[in-house]
Amino acid sequence: MATYLYKLGRFAFRRRHFVALLWVALLTLAGVGAATAPPAGNSSFSIPGTEAQRAFDLLEQRFPGMSADGATARVVFKAPEGQKMTDAGNKAAVEKTVKELGSGSEVASVADPYTGKAVSRDGTIAYASVKYKVSGMELEDSSRDALKQSAGHARDAGLTVEIGGDALTTAPETGSSEVIGIAIAAVVLVITFGSLIAAGLPLLTAIIGVGIGVSTITALATPLDLGSTTSTLATMIGLAVGIDYALFIVSRYRAELAEGRDREEAAGRAVGTAGSAVVFAGLTVVIALVGLSVVNIPMLTKMGVAAAGTVAVAVLIALTMIPALLGYAGRTVKPAGEKSKLLGGGRAAKKAGRPNMGTRWASFVVRRPVTVLLLGVVGLGAAAVPAASLELGLPDDGSQPVSTTQRRAYDLLSDGFGPGFNGPLMVVVDAKGSADKKAAFAKVGDEIKGLKDVVTVTPPAPNKAGDTAIITVVPKSQPSSATTEDLVHAIRGKSASIASATDAKLLVTGATAMNIDVSQKLNDALLPYLALVVGLAFLLLIVVFRSILVPLKAALGFLLSVLAALGAVVAVFQWGWLSGLMNVEQTGPVMSMMPIFMVGVVFGLAMDYEVFLVTRMREAYVHGENPGQAVVTGFRYSARVVTAAAVIMIAVFSGFIGSSESMIKMIGFGLAIAVFFDAFVVRMAIVPAVLALLGRRAWWLPAWLDRALPNVDVEGEGLKAQSDPDEDRELVRA
Prior knowledge:
By secondary structure, this protein is an alpha+beta fold. It contains 24 helices and eleven strands.
């Protein structure tokens, strides 16, 4: 592989005009496709295999036109101080608002508070329920605007009006977060390279790669039902890895220049060596992202595949466009150690002198491996302790900031009707096979009334055929509580006895039940997903490193960093530690998607650092250095670059902590702290300590497996034959 990539790098350097035009053409084509494509709606949302989804599907069949999974909104009214909602003026304002709400093309029905008994006992709070024909993910912006305008008219009449429900669900805007991440990345790159031109190359190629990836997603959104949220993960991951991959190749190019090679040869060798690491690092990220399909949640699968495609583009750009741009840059990109005139006065590289910080740190670890290993493992273990108290759930309006109308509506409904009113359960009774259908419906209602934590059970509402009925159950506790989850399981636990007594089937659905089922589905998929991703990457790393223990150490180190990161997430978002600093207004269960999401994304990124750092050690070992010295050599050339890459990655993810969306805030924090733990504790401390303790055993591989594995030559051993004839002189390492 190194030889092929070496030739590719030299070709891209020589034919830079062709390569640059090719990528510009692809960006233009993707941009035109995105600009001419119909606006992306929100993709359909379904959770195959769950009871809540089966109930929704049944309702679509038995209650045609009901839009069981359609979006809902609750417009909550509060009377002015000293007044009641039943006063004539207030009642007239509400009825006018209800009339306006029912005029939308996507509105299926609107329930009047006064005919639907939706006024609180003290008469101060009332609500109107709005049902839409499509789900919250598919609702048009015009319908949301009409909903907000209707509430505004009621406010003009003197009422306090707030809106809750999934009808207001929109894709979070993260543009400012991306700008923050790019700005910090630019500063880190300038410090790393000491040159504005060299620093600009990774930024330019990363932006082009993300532009192609996101534009392609936008262009294909309608035919593939990708939706407007699909590009969020692609942007986050594509931007981070795009900068990192280009950073590694540019750094290796400058190191090759420092060894005295001409620029074309340096570009070829940089792509042949660092480019090989980029290919395998990219493969691990792609495996992790595509592997999200095992969860069998279509939206998550689409997000993973889209992000994987953007990562693949980032790899191709790093291998081809970076050497082409290096050809254009010429002498403005200095050898390693030299500074530009603007930033360093044109200072030349030092040929000898004090070892750099990476060398000093690695030398210390090699001398004290046991101490460093214990400190690293104990530190991550301490950070992981809160993960033992992990509670999972999906966010609802109660987790929104108090400044949002959804949260204020949630609080008003809790005050007026009880906390469980915000998460009613929909019990669907399929009595098609029952001899006495009405008796079956009544039996289900009576059974549910006898359960704990139940406030209200509505009379059965049958369909026209009379073979299926809906019973609404209002719990005592809030939707995200463990008590409500227990109630859902208790109702479902009655299914067997109901079936034996009446031959009727009982299903529980609704937003609360759907959240519970999604959480369970994600929990059940975590171990299979972890086994798939870690297993495939383990095999891939065996091929890269030609070792059993090095990939095993990489996987175990990753698990340590993920557990520590989950512990930090629990401490901040569930326990409330540093919640003020992170602007976390409401603590509660950790988002159900968080563990599997962190495993997928962080594993791919962690393997990036493993590949880039350890391949340089492997290269030194293969070229004759002893194991301890190989560790020091790997850090001499890679520590600064890996540190810069990690800081860039942390900066990109940390930018999302400022989001007002609790889910995005949690993802940004979790990924940032996970990269910090993995890069600076696992890869920079635990990895060299373990390799120092293992010595030559770290690179052991059974002879039969060594013969069976393909030789991908990541170390660039085959490049010796590609040297120019006049390059027989011994090159001195910088």
